[in-house]
Design brief:
Helix content is 26%, strand content 18%. It is α+β, with helices and mostly antiparallel strands. The chain starts with 8 loop residues before the first strand and ends with a strand.
Length: 140
């Protein structure tokens, strides 16, 4: 990357080690395992970016407009919508019948209140610090 620019570089990525810490792993483990495999380890950025990096967590707001799994941390019903899941490409790498069973389990827990018992505090949490990271590499 340093062959392309000499100035500062900023990369928005996910920490693959943190992806599976999200509550959705209880319902759709293959989706999050797929997601985690799609990102390089954070230390893999060090040499290509010239060594010195700052890595910051990126807080996700409760009303995040972007469509990725963690954006729905406090709005789990959104993941029952096929359109919302389509915006999270990792769902497309899971067998459709398996994805349907994941959604059915989530729908069941939402209907019975089990999701709220386990994670309901997230509905009132203004931000969520999940796997989203900002990598900042100063210029030489």
């Amino acid at each position: 990357m340093r062959r392309v620019t000499k100035g500062p570089i900023v990369i928005l990525t996910c920490d693959p080690l943190a992806v599976e810490n999200f509550w959705l792993n209880r319902y759709a483990p293959d989706v999050l395992a797929t997601e985690g495999r799609r990102y390089p380890p954070l230390d893999a950025f060090k040499n290509p970016l010239g060594g010195e990096l700052r890595i910051q967590n990126v807080a996700i707001p409760l009303d995040c407009k972007d469509g990725f799994n963690e954006a729905y941390y406090g709005r789990p019903e959104k993941l029952l919508d096929p359109g919302a899941r389509l915006s999270c490409s990792a769902w497309s790498f899971v067998e459709p019948s398996l994805a349907e069973s994941y959604v059915a389990n989530l729908a069941h827990d939402l209907k019975t209140g089990a999701w709220d018992l386990a994670y309901g505090q997230l509905r009132r949490q203004p931000e969520y610090s999940g796997s989203l990271r900002l990598i900042l590499a100063p210029g030489p």
